[in-house]
Every structure is written in C-alpha cells, then in structure tokens.
Structure prediction request, 331 residues.
Amino acid sequence: MSAIEAQDLTRVFHVGDEEVRALDGLTVSLERGRLAAVIGPSGSGKSTLMALLGGLDTPSSGSISVYDQELNGMTPPDLAAYRRSTVGFVFQDFFLLSHLTAIENVEVPLKLAQVSRTERRERANELIELVGLGHRGDHRPQQLSGGERQRVAIARALANRPKLLLADEPTGNLDEKTGAAVTEILLNLNKDQDITVVLVTHNPELANQTEVQFRLGGGKLQQKTVASEELIVPPVIEPEIDMAQDQELVEITQSTSVKVVILETGFCQAKAIDIIHEVRPDLGLFDISVILNDLPFIVLDEVEREKAEELKNRFEDAGCVVELVNTSELK
Prediction:
C-alpha cells in the first residue's frame, strides 16, 4: 500500500511579475515503510515537495495523498491536525526551544496534542533513551553538541508516533562522524518502527543508503531509483548550470531574503500575539488571533537573516516553533 501518492503536482509562486513553477507536474509514489531520499540541485523543488507532504503548504494544482488522507482541500485546522497525527519533522537547524531541557523539548508536540503530563513525560523519557541521550535529558540545547541537538529533534519528531518522518538535510550542520551517527538512528527507525522516512539531502553517502531515490530537476521528476534499478523514469534534459555561480546566488539570497514562519504557537499565544503586533502594526490584535488558528503563518516575507534570527529567538522564548525559510528554497 502507498504512503505517498502525488499526481501532476504543481506549485506556482509569484515573485513580482514573474511566475516561478517550483513544481511542474510532478508525479511520485512511495510504498509504506520505505526509506527514500529526495535529491537534486538547489532550486529543483525538493523543499517545496517536503512542505506539501508535511501540510505546510498547498499545491496550486494536482493531488497529494498521504496514508489515504487527501490533503487537497483540507482547511488550515485540518492540516494542523494532520501534521500532529501523521507527520514528524526533522530540520537541518534543529529548531529546539532554548529555555527548555531536552526532555521538555520532546514534550512540546505532546502538550499541543493535550497529552497528560504523566504520559508525555513517560513518552519523552522513552524517546530520549531511544536516541541515546538518557544521560542528557535535563540539559538545555546550548549545553548539547550539534549531534545531540539533532538527536533531540528526532526524538521530538517521534513524539506523537508519526507514520511519516520528513527530514530536511538532517546531517547538513553536522561533521562527518556525527552525521553518520544520526544517519544510523534514522535508518534504524525506518527498520525497527516501520515508519516511512523521506530525506532531502545533498549528501550522496546518505542518499545511497536509502531504498528509493527521487531525483528532481526544474520541478520535475528526472529519475527514480529503487535499489539497483535505474532510469525508471527517463531523465529530463536540463540546461547546464554554472554550479559555482548558482551557489554564490544561493548564498547571497540566504543572507538577504528570509521568511519568518510560525509553525506552532505553543502555550503562550498571548506573548506571540504581542510580538507579531509589534513587528506587524498593520495587523490588529483580533486579526492576529484569528491568523494564529490557521498555521503556518509567514510573519515577515523579506527580512535580513540576522534580524530574522533575533526575531526567531524572541518567538521561541514565547514558546513558538518558528522556521526561517530562504526565498531560494521556494523556487
């Protein structure tokens, strides 16, 4: 049976007068319990596909189904419920709340799901042990190494027993040795707990350890590889790209064009409302309260990374889960 079915998936963004087709008629399917990698150059549509699978965005056209749940037409509250019940997220930048311990960070999605205090603490301890951090559960993120933070992030992603785990460059901020340890955890999760895992990665060694690889280019599926089977989908011939120039463009974009996105507001929504009202005086307090019922919400569309990081820290101190998204990732 399929975990993921996407047919003729298209996502169009408008940047000024220009129309950018981040996904262009993409059709993919993945069986339940598989471990898959999504690979391809910057701007190929990888992050857009992950956002659609995770219910963080909706397609411009086409259909997408995850574990027999049709995401098309879901209301924002329905998508929020889908994310909490079906999907676990692991991000490159960890997104842990700095004022909470490792165990308390793992408890956050359980609190949002209104799980009792006793049950969520038991579940959090179980998961911290699973990722090998039983001795570090009372430490805050700043007291942990990068690899330990990513392990906490994986434990948090598993809190609500998701059927689908989405990991966006899970080893991107880790050294080779630490990345290998995190990779082993993800591989074991897929085998031992029968979770469907989809990884976005530029790491060929990580991609080669997966059962299925989807190579994207120009918003299309160029190639699907299953184990040793290659060229299942004929490759799309793309114009040659000057990778050095492309990387330079990405770096410039990352430093100058960042979106601040609230994924969850946690328990201190009043503080979040105050911060949003401060940076977005165009929105009234009542409007903000309504908006926060329909997450995710882009607080600021274009902001310098340094200022975005400061704002992200303020939101996290208020108990929110916030992601910084490069404009380049939406193309």
DSSP finds eleven helices and 13 strands in the chain. Confidence is low (pLDDT under 50) at residues 229-255. The domain at 34-60+71-238 is CATH 3.40.50.300 (Rossmann fold).
